[in-house]
Design goal:
single chain; mainly alpha; Tetracycline Repressor, domain 2; 8 helices
Length: about 210
């Protein structure tokens, strides 16, 4: 018997984004374990074989979803960091970038969890590259702070890991409901202030 589901005309230019949109909805509502190419095809009204034109299997779909998440995060950070032409004080730019990241992670918890697991999966090179491009903007910001004397010298990636680990812990606690989401901005403010204070270049000894 023919499949009674309506068949909508998705051509090669919009089938892939339609599948990713449906996959993200499914991820948010049911979790990664319940995603399947066949179910997504049924949801958007195409043949069960159509998704394989873009995704060889379920893992390829999950990798593409994680990659798209990092691309979106990168765009959010780029907009935040370039707002006002980059003329804002360095501490404000750090704070705004970290707040933007924290809100992305807590507003998209299932997607962000998939992104984190995907970037470390062997063979997920595109996901890792997208993650590097997104977080590389923060590394560049730290490098800028070092160049202008706002932060002490050192490997900017290692300096950034300290800040990332702190904020990652906060967002994880929010997503697991260990702390209320209403406390997010205040905790991020405290984390950034402590980071900037601790990462300042040491003061010159008095009397010199």
């Amino acid at each position: 018997m023919p499949d009674p589901s309506p068949q909508r005309p998705y051509h090669h230019g919009n089938l892939r984004p339609a599948l990713l949109d449906a996959a993200e909805r499914g991820l948010r509502e049911r979790g990664a374990g319940q995603l399947s190419l066949r179910d997504l095809a049924r949801e958007i009204g195409v043949s069960h074989a159509a998704p394989r034109r873009h995704f060889a299997d379920r893992q390829a779909l999950l990798d593409a979803l994680a990659e798209a998440g990092f691309v979106r995060l990168g765009a959010v950070l780029r907009t935040t960091l370039t707002e006002g032409g980059g003329e804002r004080p360095f501490p404000s730019r750090v704070r705004d970038a970290v707040v933007a990241f924290a809100h992305f992670a807590t507003e998209n918890p299932a997607l962000y969890e998939l992104m984190n697991s995907g970037k470390h999966r062997p063979g997920a090179d595109e996901v890792a590259r997208a993650a590097g491009a997104a977080f590389g903007q923060v590394t560049d910001l730290i490098r800028e702070g070092q160049a202008h004397g706002a932060l002490q010298e050192g490997d900017p990636e290692e300096v950034g890991i300290i800040l990332y680990a702190t904020v990652q812990g906060i967002t994880t606690m929010v997503n697991s409901r260990m702390i209320d989401a209403e406390r997010l901005d205040g905790l991020v403010d405290t984390a950034v202030a402590q980071f900037l204070r601790g990462a300042r270049p040491p003061s010159e000894p008095s009397g010199r």
